[in-house]
Write a structure and sequence with these properties.
Blueprint: H1 4-28, E1 42-52, E2 55-62, E3 72-75, E4 79-86, E5 94-96, E6 101-102, E7 111-116, E8 122-129, E9 133-142, H2 153-157
């Protein structure tokens, strides 16, 4: 027969091992961190108007490849911070159709930062809006959904 003291020790060991396994499972899934990992994400890009041989182009500077009239991409439910610089010889205004956002009329050398909070997906045209609309390229808004599917503890480690 097992004495009461030995039974209490065995119970304490079983409870301790169970508590340790629970803590490892809780901490291992990322529920306990020493720093905050969630913050309001924002997409930041910088573009510049340039007048090349009388043709207006928008050049990607920061956050975008350097090709003329780049395809701008952002996400829904996140701030989209777009800085527009006028490196051209004439006045320019960036207008995004569908999002109904535009900069002020920018003098040569001027810059403006606009912040957009897109709520729905879509492909929107952007223009140089001065006396008339000149189509330059597209702004694409996409939705990115994280995978909430649990595939097993060993599958998550891979």
């Amino acid at each position: 027969m097992v004495s009461k003291d030995k039974a209490l020790i065995i119970i304490a060991i079983v409870v301790g091992v169970g508590a340790l396994a629970g803590m490892i499972g809780l901490i291992g899934q990322g529920n306990v961190r020493h720093v905050l990992i969630f913050w309001q994400e924002k997409v930041e890009q910088t573009v510049a108007f340039e007048d090349i041989d009388g043709i207006v182009q928008l050049q990607g500077i920061v956050g975008i490849g350097g090709e003329p009239n780049p395809h701008l991409i952002t996400r829904t439910s996140f701030a989209y911070v777009l800085t527009v610089i006028n490196n051209g010889d004439t006045h320019h205004r960036l207008y995004i159709e569908g999002l109904d956002v535009q900069t002020d009329l920018l003098e040569p050398g001027a810059r403006e930062t606009i912040t957009i909070y897109p709520t729905k997906e879509g492909l929107y045209k952007y223009y140089d809006k001065r006396q008339y609309l000149e189509h330059l390229g597209f702004v694409e808004v996409v939705t990115v959904v994280p995978s909430d599917e649990f595939t097993g503890i060993f599958r998550d480690l891979i």
